[in-house]
Amino acid sequence: MTIDRQTVEHIAELAKLELTEDEIELFAGQLSAILEYVERLQTVDTDAIAPTASVLPLRNVLRPDEARPSLPRDEALANAADQAEGQFRVEAVLEDV
Amino acid sequence: MTAYEPVIGLEVHAELETASKMFCACEVVDSTSARPNTAICPVCLGMPGVLPVVNRQAVEYGLMVGLALHCEIPAFNQFARKSYFYPDLPKGYQISQYEYPLAVNGWLEIDLPDGASRQIRIRRAHLEEDTGKLTHVDGHSLVDLNRAGVPLLEIVSEADIHSAEEAEAYARKLRAILQYLGVNSGDMSKGVLRFEANVSVRPVGSDELRTRTEIKNLNSIRSLARGVAYEIERQTAVWESGGAVQQATMGWDETRQVTVVQRVKESADDYRYFPEPDLPVLEISPEWVETVRAQLPELPDAKRDRYMNALGLTRYDASVLVAERAVAEYFEAALAAGGDPKQLANYITGDVFRQMNLEGREREEIGSLRLTPQALAQLVTLVQQGTINHGIAKRLLETLYAEGGDPAALVEQQGLAQVTDESVLAGAISAVLDENPDEVARYLAGEDKLIKFLMGKVMKALRGKGDAQIVQRLLADQLEARRV
Fold this sequence. Notes:
The structure holds two protein chains of two kinds. Chain A is mainly alpha-helical. Helices cover 38% and strands 9% of the residues of chain A. Chain A has a domain at 5-42: Histone, subunit A (Orthogonal Bundle), CATH 1.10.20. Chain A contains three helices and three strands. The N and C termini of chain B lie far apart (72 Å). In chain B, 40% of the residues lie in helices and 20% in strands. In chain B, the strands form four sheets. Chain B has an eight-stranded mixed beta sheet. A three-stranded antiparallel beta sheet of chain B has the order 5-4-15, with no helix packed on it. In chain B, strands 3-16 form a two-stranded antiparallel ribbon. By secondary structure, chain B is α+β, with helices and mostly antiparallel strands. At the A-B interface, β1, α3 and β3 of A face β2, α1, β8, β9 and β16 of B.
């Protein structure tokens, strides 16, 4: 499967990344290579292997219900592209999801 | 003309009242009043490199609800990523559960206004995280993420509901169970409990499933009932006029009391669910389930049955008392203070609710009344002991409701004690009979119902305090004595 320019631009838009023309070309090639590799993995016969959701030997990692201090608001908002009234300000999004 | 029947399923989102969020240690704050963005951290902000960790209490609260709804609890649980891009969740996905939810295949018994009850099947209940809140101003949206990451339990019914009344009964019962469990306040105005209804209609007797619509923005149980009733009528009219219902998300417009199209769905949403790689699987052992089951409080149905069997209440009174946790607690506090169960039930479901309705107070506010459960118990006991009569008790209840106070002391101060002295009562009666010779004559001539008029006059003369039974007996005697 090949990733074309249009798909890269779409993904970049969703991820709020600004890419140059060169980067679009570069990532289209890299993403295609990654997907081709995954396609190769899919050819492996896994019929005899039980499905798994996680390869970590962990289960039930839980924490007690105790509240701890959150970030100071200034810090939390420091990376926001835009802010107002202590809130993140984004372009109007009226459509409900 | 073909008759149509509705097919309704309800999806409920209930925030779980934990101290901290689902996957991080930020405090759960009241999202309607807290300063925006004061309970957020790198985890709920979706910063790179952070790891979520599951809140044990949220899992246990979810299990409590699952067990209260008679669900099976699968041993294998897994969280999943539900992808969607919307600023109310900064990660670009919501951590939810998909193929392996916390609880499945349960049921809820609903009580209908005609006294019947029915079981509505529960398909599943799963854990997820709540989203932030958006405020739309001047072509922009402001994002407050205090609520993002608050534990949320989504409870999905089967499409077993067939009227707006059943939908309302389901909502009321589920809300009561959440309140009894102490996992959710049920305060829909604060958005901690949210209902969405999936509604379609079909010809009666058929088992087809026609196109459904989803109703959102239902901010109270009343809105839910009205929104569903409206949508049933609207869809029925569409089919009857030869049209076809379009799949859509509808919003309930509270002001206009209509549903309006919010979004037309042309294709199924693609949330691209996949197992959450940042969270190890969750195994719920039978021992864990039993530990949680042992902690369950007495739930509304069991309480209702106990009120009927042990206290001798009618099914109707018992159902009304258990419908709100606060009312059941009030009743039990009055019971503990020594009141007679049946009398207490009568006063609470009668006079107390009437006073609250007059004031526009919700039943769940009963715990904050000036009329304390102890005072009500004392009032009931004063009537039973014959210290005051029913009429005085009703008046006294109004005083206690408005001002609070101690019933026995008020009876003393205001001289409200029942008059049982027969010579006093007889004196009042003969005075009334002397003053109303015409009515006496007509009574003696066969107009039996005039005894009520005379009885009223006597009680009025006694300022309501006469012992009604004695007055009735003496009045009848004196009337007979005048029959010459």
